[in-house]
Amino acid sequence: MDYIHTMPARALPVSIPYDHHLHIGAIIFPAMDQIDFTGPFEVLCRVPNSTFHIIARDLNPVSDEHGLLFTPEITFREAPPLDVLIVPGGPGQIGVMEDDDTISFIRDCAAGAKYVFSVCTGALLCGAAGLLKGRVWTTHWASHHLLKEFGAIPIDERVVVDGKFISAAGVTAGLDGALRLVALLRGEEAAQQIQLAIEYQPEPPFDSGTPERAPHSVLFKARAASRHLMETRQEQIKRITGSI
Amino acid sequence: MDYIHTMPARALPVSIPYDHHLHIGAIIFPAMDQIDFTGPFEVLCRVPNSTFHIIARDLNPVSDEHGLLFTPEITFREAPPLDVLIVPGGPGQIGVMEDDDTISFIRDCAAGAKYVFSVCTGALLCGAAGLLKGRVWTTHWASHHLLKEFGAIPIDERVVVDGKFISAAGVTAGLDGALRLVALLRGEEAAQQIQLAIEYQPEPPFDSGTPERAPHSVLFKARAASRHLMETRQEQIKRITGSI
């Protein structure tokens, strides 16, 4: 199988010449989870010899799930060919799963990209675009069981690399995935340089970041709070995958 | 001394009644480091019974250091009294250090706030507003030596709590500090709930997040790259602190 998710980061190959100017782009959409996008942006806007594009259906401001407004720079139609495509997630993923413009853009852009990076439930958008079939992939813990609906091989890891496809688990995992991606694009030292600049030496004050670590009562409430969203996701995916 | 930074998070007191609707607000300004703001936003917009305000001098879009546009919701003049004031940093901190509107807003708002949370070099803005005198504080590693110019007691920790003042080290430390703050506002379980929702179980792929951990060559280049910025900060602070 064509994947290298078990290979230590140190050994990852760098295949892109340094003098190749990299076009890195993220799609944004309404009700996304903003740090699925701003986490990778923080890291990848610092990649040497690169341009970061913020891409959407049109140029109207886009609100994240909690009302934070972002301004796209370029439309799907006008975006240049990308070396790296970033696909964030969040509850708003449901709203664009059946949007032809968004899904076609992901499919077409991914075909030519050197790397595709899905964060959180951006994995499900990549699934709708047919990218998951036969590939190892990860996503947010609460949606992890949905990966198999797209023919993926679900892996319970924070960052998974399968050839040119990189997936990060939920939300903040985009930071870890983005640093892995920098190492692939420009080498390990470039990633270390960025990690130091953003002082990424995390110290979560509590031990509640995954279903396995969270106290039982915390997990129980989280599952209850997301039940309706999960049912909606599941029903939509069942409907969509009949036609892929 | 009135500080509790050594107290374990579990033991932190919650002093705010649950039925008190919390007004949480962050200032934003040009050339800030966006994740100093979006990290805490990701956590604090989920605090039960609260409203998050995005505050600036005026309502024009504000670009972060790398061109990401944010849209303020309310001006300094119109902002309601805040329970929590968040002050991000980044290179743009230099540009507002001598801006009366910004510094007066921080000073006045902090006086009535239940908590003030500085992230990265937002610490220096709090310094210009006179908040650091005699208090323990932290900031980004490259600017840590500047804290003493404002009469602070510098502490080399990722998150420091001194009474109602919470400070986070560089950039991504805002996530850790924000979770500490949620525990202070709404209790430990609320913080754990948010940590699980955003799957904050970080796994940095490299060990380069602080000057002590980074490879020597990485640190050397980082210091060289930030030398001019540090000199500019130092000169400005010397000039300002003469008049505080």
Would you list the SSEs of chain A in sequence order as H and E?
EHEEEEEHHEHEEEEHHH
CATH class of chain A: Alpha Beta
Low-confidence stretches of chain A: 1-12
As for the CATH topology of chain A, it is Rossmann fold
SS-based class of chain A? alpha/beta
Mean pLDDT level of chain A: 93
Second-tier CATH architecture of chain A: 3-Layer(aba) Sandwich
CATH superfamily of chain A: Class I glutamine amidotransferase (GATase) domain
Question: Major β-sheet of chain A, in short?
Answer: 7 strands, mixed
Cα(first) to Cα(last) distance of chain A is 23 Å
Number of domains of chain A: 1
Total of DSSP H or I helical runs spanning 4+ residues of chain A: 7
The count of strands of chain A amounts to 11
Instruction: Write down the Rg of chain A.
Output: 17 Å
- Which shape of chain A, going by the Cα principal axes? globular
Helix content of chain A: 25-40%
| Protein chain pair with the most extensive contact, residues per chain | A-B, 63 and 63 residues
Oligomer: homodimer
Task: Classify the beta-strand content of chain A into a percent band.
Answer: 15-25%
